[in-house]
Amino acid sequence: MAPSSSPTLRTTSEADEEKYANVKWEELGFALTPTDYMYVAKCRQGESFSQGKILPYGDISISPCSPILNYGQGLFEGLKAYRTEDDRVMIFRPDQNALRMQAGAERLCMTSPSLELFVDAVKQTVLANKKWVPPPGKGTLYIRPLLIGSGDTLGVAPAPENTFLIYASPVGDYHKVSSGLDLKVDHKHHRAHSGGTGGVKSCTNYSPVVKSLFEAKSSGFSDILFLDAATSRNIEELSACNIFIVKGNIVSTPPTSGTILPGVTRKSISELARDIGYQVQERDVSVDELLEAEEVFCTGTAVVVTAVETVTFHDKKVKYRTGEAALSRKLRSMLTNIQMGIVEDKKGWMVEI
Ligand code: COI
Fold first, then answer.
1. What ipTM describes this predicted complex?
2. Where does the record place a coiled coil (predicted)?
3. Pairing of strands 89-92, 140-150
4. Whole-prediction pTM value?
5. Residues contacting ligand 1 via CB (< 6 Å)
6. CA-CA distance, 100 to 96, in Å (whole number)?
7. Which atom of ligand 1 is nearest to the CA of 303?
8. pLDDT tier at 17 (50, 70, 90 boundaries)?
9. I need a labelling partner for 34 at 20 to 30 A (CA). Which of 22, 157, 166, 222 fits?
10. Which of 241, 265, 306 gets mutated to test ligand 1 (max ligand atoms within 8 A of its CB)?
11. How far apart are CA 96 and CA 105, in angstroms?
């Protein structure tokens, strides 16, 4: 019999099987779900990056004598891809991550990819892993660009080679909390100091906070808040995100003067808060002010905008406004509505792949 010329009828689930990877989207937290492909480019010292390759996701080979393994010479970024209701895949402000990687590379004496190459590489990585971008509202594809010192350097020196690598993983919420985070102020350790690397996304900023974080979590806290190393009087940031306090019409966050990571979400939320009439101040914020604030929230690519419910400093515990009435709730939905294509992106933040 001659084949029918009418199109084959397919069920939605067959179509979905091709469109989506086999993931239980509802169960996603912030843990690695390996995807199919990663992007890799290498560049010798003194040269500039040229187009890399999309390779199957997997282990990489690196010299035991590489600067990343021996001296922690490396930077990372974090950004997300979103699937909209009309099935477009969008990424949020990738130019900002490219520029931040360039600033970090300058600080660590590394060669960074150009802004164009960075954005193109992110797009290629997302496109290659498109079926891992969760359905609308069921999570996001977290994209992790790395710039690492590869090659061999026994002495402390700039890396003879830099590797730019991007992998991705579908993720859900970073913190599983109902109304807000329970923070503990760390009065023993500091995350950054003046003249150090706190203001760039150096890999070395993160492992030193693990001990404090682990201890705090073991005592039932959600995260840890660091104080400035010079005076121990002002708040800085959490283990992996920025912090804001709210009092009346004023929203305040510590300034990015070297020890605070210039978060892309931090910058975007400041802009959105100004748009709805809040005064946003980037300035030193003392622990005393934190304890007197009406509301506290944190921002970051991974945490998005997350309310803080309590802060504990020594034996004092303060509770803050959370829920429907909280500014953080409003700002979070303003941001995620833009990211998910629910409201028009008038700011030109979203990039379609
Ligand atoms: C991000 O929000 O992208 C971060 O860098 C947090 C990460 C350390 C989990």
1. 0.96
2. none
3. unpaired
4. 0.94
5. 78, 206, 240, 300-302
6. 6
7. 2
8. low
9. 222
10. 241
11. 14
